[in-house]
């Protein structure tokens, strides 16, 4: 036995296997996932696993490595999120999302940090040694809403598109703020004195980190699109480029201390339309499928590891600090959403209702990002307290809020997602209105979103498409594409239902030509064959033969006085076949 | 800049990117791959890369790590080979393949080993310190034909199916022999004395390694099939199980010192039919696509690394030893093929022609497996000589034989692969003959391949299918499945050609209902829209509208005295639309 040799890949494979089997297990009982979100169940599995490992080894189970999380588990989820991001609602609400993500997160960080510092001043709590900077550092890591947790819960409750994009977009874009504030406070903690220059540098850094991420992402996205122009002869490696370039964008951004999450989202959103046009249909299915698969497995692993890492002796328990952390997280988020929405609603016609505000505030789940960040903290004597507080906040938000949000959505009758896809008519209307509004904005001199969208579209069709698309001279309208997609889907349905009768396929005609000459011999002479073949199968084959045989004869006299085309009964076909067979020697 | 942090994934991604871009590069020039096999070009790229690294760093470039090769690069290729293995020709020729793989490889090992030992006795060559055991050890690693190299070359020359499966099957199954002999001689080298017990243990081990591999593989394959029974509700992780279980089978076999290659092939071939029946069509596309993609990238990386690893100071040059190695490799293989084929042809009606024999002998390419094995050798004073000899043999076989085999195949007019897929009629005939022959074998009491195949099929349909398939009560005949596939393909073609006219799809009817009410307004009022939309696109949309609009009206009076259905000209449709539009206010 040589376990050493294969240990690394073997254990990785086993963990992924465990995650996948856990997922299957939950879905075997249909009732369970409808009550408890999958993320809670997975954390629960992780807790049990952690308990078993702790019990067997008598030492803390291994903690989720922050490097593994940030380098291998997080990118697939964010890539999936970015690639399947509904771009229209995202860009329509980009202002609001940015407000929540930037101002809201800063508000939460400082709110939580300062009020926890206030708690630390109470002598009875024995927390006087936690400095303001440490509290702010803790605030910076606990304030950020987690995209993985939000996605896991919001995917199951089907709230309306706007509400979903507001919470989800915020959770993705606040990464830039979190990165900056976390690194800023961490370096402040290690500095002897803090100059005001450092603070300003921090503010400047914020723009660099966010916009730099976007720039890196778009660069790689465009390169990816450009690369797929040349893959016509080797379709099989097309999907690879989507993954490679996105991952490179994430790694490059991380390397330069930019926001990797922002970079990979920009990359995915930027490349999507060009890549889709360049690669083959099967490649695209593979890309979509594998992205979903990968993110789903990553997501599962993250929650299981969260559970496993919770067990152990990494925690220092201090009731007041932990309880107040949970309370402040809730209060400051609620206040932040209320205040920001007040301003947002002032400038918008399509306001955010108070029900929606409640769900936005309540949906502020914390997850694995906080957890990894708290483990990345430099060692200081209260780190274990921070770990304990972070774990409690995560478990509280995922379990209590995650499990109650669905009943609350039902109770409040929050507007749900519309079930049906928009019709072609609606799509034409939307497009028409877009152009109209772009024209109005152009005339009135207001540089609004429609103006910019129009300019972008112009730039896209004038320059980008020519460089990035293989067949740029025939850009198909999305309506035509939709129509083709529907027709294709319908054709498959028809073929599967066996109703593609009016246009018999040439290959099948050809084959049935072979068939009818061999048919009688084959079926009648070989008793053994009939024994082995299932009667259903035989019936199936005969039906196919019957249909095609009949049709071959029918192709001659296509015009028939007494029957409408396609109206003849299958019984009649069968009868004719029977007659034919009796006649044959 | 924080390169340390992202180094490992970043460099892996860059290597894969290089491999993919190299692949694209070759395919841009269509003429190049038709003359030089891709493997040669890739080794060449690797040589250049290695030269650059050597020149810049002034030290040997990193050598391909044997662990990376055996644990990460080889499994995808073998999995792909096993999954897409044409099972019928493989099992029809299994006896011949095993003879070549087992007896042939042993013949080559001892032939090359002993004759090189003979060369070592010549005093003028200064090789007397290379013992017989070391020569045999070297023979065991250099004798085995490499599946990766064979696949890379034989995929491009399209020889007939039997010839292909003979060479390729041998290259896969000789792994068990290679593993046993290599490990045996390596342990003999370290032993002070060799007892005859050890030799017999070695012979026994051979069966354990081979059959153990098959057993491990089949176990994991059946488990995989069983697992996919339960994935109906989470289609998205279905493809994962195919990869996870195959990889686990490989790792488990390696862990127990069994043949990983044999295990993964058994796993892939065992699970294929059940998994295919259980998983969805899209999952299956993803599985196939990703397997091809992965193996193609692995393959590319292996050849590039081979080139890179060649450059450097790992070599000890000794003209006679290296030249005689190449010569003996060629001679012993040719002799082995001739002798073995003589016996094979005695017992078969369908003999192997002398042309085929030549190609089998000539197609014995060596590749990365030898290369990794030679680096895995324990350190002794002549290791660098062995590395040099192995490198030369690999480069000679891949470059000289790989590049000349295509012209030789043309010159000898070796029977090629038939281009067209078998028709349904042929398939029925083949199946009929199978049953007939199974019956004849049953009656005559001869337990031949048909007898066993029939028994296996019975066992499969009686027990395995019920356990492993989700919908085991409706097993579809392969003919029905083929027919459905053809119909589906045809339907898509029809839909794409826009000829699915006789059966307008319901969704498209619905939409065109919307469309016709909006159409006039949209097209006429919005000048801007018309400017932005390409005239082609507009034409496209109008054509779709025209067709559907016409059809809606036509669904009422389906019977028309003067026209056959589907005969009306598109011009007429357009005219009618025009009239309609003029009439509308």
Automatic annotation (TrEMBL), chains A, B:
UniProtKB keywords: Antiport, Cell membrane, Glycoprotein, Ion transport, Membrane, Phosphoprotein, Sodium, Sodium transport, Transmembrane, Transmembrane helix, Transport
Source species, domain of life: Eukaryota
Transmembrane segments: 12-29, 35-56, 68-85, 97-120, 132-153, 165-185, 206-227, 247-268, 318-345, 357-380, 386-409
Gene3D superfamilies: 6.10.140.1330, 6.10.250.1040, 6.10.250.2020
Cellular component, GO, one term: basolateral plasma membrane
Cellular compartment(s): Basolateral cell membrane
GO process annotations (BP): regulation of intracellular pH; sodium ion import across plasma membrane
Membrane topology of this protein: Multi-pass membrane protein
Location of the Cation/H+ exchanger transmembrane domain: 17-409
GO molecular function: potassium:proton antiporter activity; sodium:proton antiporter activity
Coiled coil location: none
Domain Sodium/hydrogen exchanger regulatory region: 530-584
Family named by the database record: Belongs to the monovalent cation:proton antiporter 1 (CPA1) transporter (TC 2.A.36) family.
Protein name: Sodium/hydrogen exchanger
Organism: Scopus umbretta
Gene: Slc9a2_0
């Amino acid at each position: 036995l040589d376990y050493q040799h294969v240990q690394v890949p073997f254990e990785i494979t086993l963990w992924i296997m465990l995650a996948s089997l856990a997922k299957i297990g939950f879905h075997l009982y249909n009732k369970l996932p409808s009550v408890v979100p999958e993320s809670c169940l997975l954390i629960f599995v992780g807790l049990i696993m952690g308990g078993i490992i702790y019990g067997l080894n008598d030492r803390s189970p291994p903690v989720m490595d922050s490097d593994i999380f940030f380098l291998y588990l997080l990118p697939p989820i964010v890539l999936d999120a970015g690639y399947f991001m509904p771009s229209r609602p995202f860009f329509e609400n980009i202002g609001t999302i940015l407000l929540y993500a930037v101002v809201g997160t800063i508000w939460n960080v400082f709110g939580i940090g300062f009020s926890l510092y206030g708690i630390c001043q109470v002598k009875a709590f024995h927390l006087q040694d936690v400095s303001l900077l440490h509290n702010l550092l803790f605030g910076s890591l606990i304030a950020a809403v987690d995209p993985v947790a939000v996605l896991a819960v919001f995917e199951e409750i089907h709230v309306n598109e706007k509400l979903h994009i507001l919470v989800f977009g915020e959770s993705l874009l606040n990464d830039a703020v979190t990165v900056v504030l976390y690194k800023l406070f961490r370096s402040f903690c290690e500095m002897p004195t803090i100059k005001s220059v450092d603070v300003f540098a921090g503010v400047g850094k914020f723009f660099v980190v966010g916009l730099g991420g976007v720039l890196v992402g778009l660069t790689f996205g465009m390169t990816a699109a450009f690369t797929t122009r040349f893959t016509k002869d080797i379709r099989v490696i097309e999907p690879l480029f989507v993954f490679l370039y996105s991952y490179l964008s994430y790694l490059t951004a991380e390397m330069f201390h930019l926001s990797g999450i922002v970079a990979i989202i920009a990359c995915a959103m930027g490349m999507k339309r060009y890549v889709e046009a360049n690669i083959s249909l099967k490649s695209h299915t593979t890309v979509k499928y594998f992205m979903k698969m990968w993110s789903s497995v990553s997501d599962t692993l993250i929650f299981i590891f969260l559970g496993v890492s919770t067990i152990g002796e990494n925690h220092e328990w201090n009731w007041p600090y932990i309880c107040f952390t949970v309370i402040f997280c809730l209060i400051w988020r609620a206040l932040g959403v209320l205040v920001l929405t007040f301003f947002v609603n002032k400038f918008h016609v399509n306001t955010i209702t108070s029900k929606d505000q409640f769900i936005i505030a309540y949906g502020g789940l914390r997850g694995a990002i906080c957890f990894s960040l708290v483990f990345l903290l430099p060692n200081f004597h209260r780190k274990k307290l921070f770990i304990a507080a972070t774990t409690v906040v995560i478990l509280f938000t995922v379990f209590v809020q995650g499990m109650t949000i669905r009943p609350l959505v039902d109770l409040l009758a929050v507007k749900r997602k519309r079930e049906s896809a928009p019709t072609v008519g609606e799509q034409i209307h939307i497009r028409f209105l877009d152009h109209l509004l772009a024209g109005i904005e152009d005339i009135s001199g207001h540089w609004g979103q429609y103006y910019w969208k129009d300019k972008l579209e112009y730039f896209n069709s004038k320059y980008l498409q020519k460089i990035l698309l293989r067949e740029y001279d025939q850009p198909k309208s999305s309506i035509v594409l939709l129509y083709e997609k529907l027709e294709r889907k319908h054709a498959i349905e028809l073929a599967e239902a066996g109703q593609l009768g009016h246009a018999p396929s040439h290959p099948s005609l050809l084959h049935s030509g072979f068939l009818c000459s061999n048919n009688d011999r084959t079926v009648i002479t070989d008793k053994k064959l009939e024994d082995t073949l299932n009667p259903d199968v035989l019936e199936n084959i005969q039906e196919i033969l019957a249909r095609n045989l009949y049709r071959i004869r029918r192709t001659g006299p296509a015009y028939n006085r007494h029957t409408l085309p396609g109206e003849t009964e299958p019984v009649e076909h069968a009868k004719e076949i029977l007659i034919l067979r009796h006649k044959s020697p």
